[in-house]
Amino acid sequence: xxxxxxxxxxxxxxxxxxxxxxxxxxxxxxxxxxxxxxxxxxxxxxxxxxxxxxxxxxxxxxxxxxxxxxxxxxxxxxxxxxxxxxxxxxxxxxxxxxxxxxxxxxxxxxxxxxxxxxxxxxxxxxxxxxxxxxxxxxxxxxxx
Length: 144
Prior knowledge:
By secondary structure, the protein is mainly beta. It has one helix at 2-16; strands at 27-34, 37-38, 43-51, 59-64, 71-74, 89-95, 103-112, 120-122, 128-130, 132-139. It has one domain (25-139): Macroglobulin (MG2) domain (Immunoglobulin-like, Sandwich). 16% of the residues are buried.
């Protein structure tokens, strides 16, 4: 019984210390915008695969860095461009507005917890940062 108690204490200590061996740290992979180069009026599909064994990620939000008022709430519910509900691929189909300025921008995708705060990730050096992926967002006007 004493040995069992020590094992429980050791596991609890590792968990509280932030050991990610047992926790299955969430990850974002394969972020994309299709098509890669857009023009006003196009429909773009923004998507990212989220690996999250413990359901920590509740939302994925995209923000255009150069214009932070432009926010996209990606979905994993099979609607608005998302192909299959609950498959871990967060997506959103959006139409590029006709008044969108041409240029190269950066779209930052951030995984959020249920309280709306970014999911914290610890790197190998112990630094904590939000779970994010960045994508180039290119808008070009058609050549006449």
